[in-house]
Amino acid sequence: MIKYEIFINPKWLQKLEDDIWEDEQVPAILKIGKNRYKIWLKYRGNVIRKKKKKSYNIIFQNPYLFDGAHEIHLNAEYDDISLSRNKLSLDFFDRIGVISPHSKHVLLYMNGFCKGIYLELESFDQHLLKKRNLADGPIIYATNYFANFSLLSPENELKTSLDEGYTIKYGEEKDLTLLENFIEMINTCSNKEFAKEVSKILDIEKYLRWLAGVVCTQNFDGFIHNYALYRNSETNLFEITPWDYDGTWGRDLHGRKLEYDFVPISGYNTLTGRLLHINPFRTKYKEILSSILENDFNLETLEPIIEKQLETLKPFIRIDPYIKMNEEHFEKEKNVFLRFIKKRNNYLKKEMASL
User: Fold this and answer.
1) pLDDT-derived band of residue 154, with 50, 70 and 90 as boundaries?
2) Distances (CA, A) of 130 to 62, 126, 136, 229
3) Could you identify which of 108, 143, 203, 299 might form a hypothetical disulfide with 237, taking C-beta atoms 3.0 to 4.6 angstroms apart as the criterion?
4) Tens of pLDDT along 321-347?
5) How far is residue 180's CA from residue 161's CA, in Å, rounded to a whole number?
6) Neighbours of 280 (CB within 10 A)
7) Which structural domain range is residue 240 located in?
8) Rg (CA), the chain
9) Does some domain include residue 323?
10) How far apart are CA 44 and CA 100, in angstroms?
């Protein structure tokens, strides 16, 4: 596992600690092998900020790019016993044809102190588009639970603005207006008009592949949060990508076990509901999900991938000062994955008849 070393003036580190919710960046040095990079550093995430092992956002100053990226995330994965759910989920999305950030585990040190195992994630931004040879286009993050494609909040209260829950990562204000217009259309068009117009705004097949990925991995937050929208400038269609998938594969975001049938096969945001109400889109979703269950989301495909991932991490468990378990306990987590996959696969196949 590659070693990352951060060197930071203690006064800047204390500044981060003084207000864990502050998003102001502080200067630091990142050393990877023999190379040193001047960076900006800050905490990232929500629930994780309250934990002892925090996650970090790194923005490169000099040089401006590192391996084609200007920004990366170092996720603590603190509440995931396996430290693997996020990576396995994002790799799974990539495998089923959904744009997804790439990731790798690293061993992080700060001023000589071992902070343990972290997951380095690509930032979904214009640099990622360039690395993947994808068309340029605006990127909008779903930053909270109001990003449910509805006129109402999750508490069933009227929203004050249709852009609630969204933040522009790359683009201009007019791009956010296009999204607002789309949300208005989703909520006001007749079924006939919606069926005719939605394919002019949204890449339907890619959205349905994303939906299948959320449903298989069972990310409870994935339908109204934990995603980004990208408007492909060649097609002028919105595409969708996942992020922060640690609460998956049989556990929630707090690390508690989650039953295999907790998330319905149809998901639960407004856009998904409208799409699945249209027969051709519902039929296409069934075809996509059926193929994924047969070829990608099953024990035969996933067990060796999970085993390899856990075996790679196991030698470093005792080095991480925030992990309070031994290798045997870590090894047992594999059974949680396998039991979930088997039961979830069977459950979804039975639920196909309800679509």
Assistant:
1) confident
2) 20, 6, 8, 16
3) 203
4) 999 888 888 889 999 999 999 999 999
5) 9
6) 11
7) 134-297+346-354
8) 21
9) no
10) 19
CA 109 to chain centre: 25
Instruction: Judge if 113 and 170 occupy the same domain.
Output: no
Do 233 and 109 lie in one domain? The reply is no
Exposure letters 139-178 (e unless 16+ CB within 10 A, then b): bbbbbbbbbbbbeebeeeeeeeebbbbbebbbbeeebbeb
The reply to whether 227 falls in a domain is yes
Residues composing the chain: 355
Same domain, 139 and 258: yes
Last-in-domain residue among 91, 122, 153: 122
Q: Is 127 a domain residue?
A: no
- pTM (predicted TM-score): 0.95
Cβ 255 vs Cβ 345: under 8 Å: no
What HEC string does 88-102 produce?
A: HHHHHHHHCCCCCCC
From CA 291, how far away is CA 98, in angstroms rounded? 15
User: Domain total for the chain?
Assistant: 2
Going from the C-alpha of 134 to that of each of 9, 64, 208, 334, the distances in angstroms are: 39, 21, 20, 35
